[in-house]
Amino acid sequence: MYELDDLVLFELPVYADVDALSERVRPRWRGWTRREDDVWLVAAEVDEDPADLVALLREVEAFVSDEGLLAIRFCLDGRFHVMEAPALERVADAA
């Protein structure tokens, strides 16, 4: 689908999550949002510095946890991955 090495795509099922994620990442990473089929995409452009990608992924992981989502899919370098909320927080919430 997308194979741009400087672009990370995050899939979200509802628009409310799109707004929240966009607000969280836009101060630091440029990008766009759009609906494709039955999911919303939030794109973020990263620098060539690997630390920029790491910072973005950590920020989105915190978003997934803060919003109470179990997981979201993201596309990086043309491959899809699943980002889950940190396991310890899920166990604490279940108790």
Strand order, sheet with most strands: 2-3-1-4-5
CA-to-CA gap between the ends?
Answer: 40 Å
User: Which regions have little confidence, pLDDT < 50, spanning 5+ residues?
Assistant: none
Number of domains: 1
Instruction: State mean pLDDT (0 to 100 scale).
Output: 87
Name the overall outline: globular
Query: Major β-sheet, in short?
Result: 5 strands, antiparallel
Q: What share of residues are in beta strands?
A: 25-35%
Task: Output the structural class.
Answer: alpha+beta
Number of strands: 5
Query: What is the CATH third-level topology name?
Result: Alpha-Beta Plaits
CATH hierarchy class name? Alpha Beta
**Strand-and-helix sequence, N→C?**
EHEEHEEH
Considering DSSP H and I runs of 4 or more, what fraction of the residues is helical?
A: 25-40%
Gyration radius over CA: 13 Å
Question: Number of helical runs?
Answer: 3
**CATH second-level architecture:** 2-Layer Sandwich
Provide a quick synopsis of the model.
The protein is of the alpha+beta class and 95 residues long. It contains 3 helices and 5 strands. Helix content is 38%, strand content 33%.
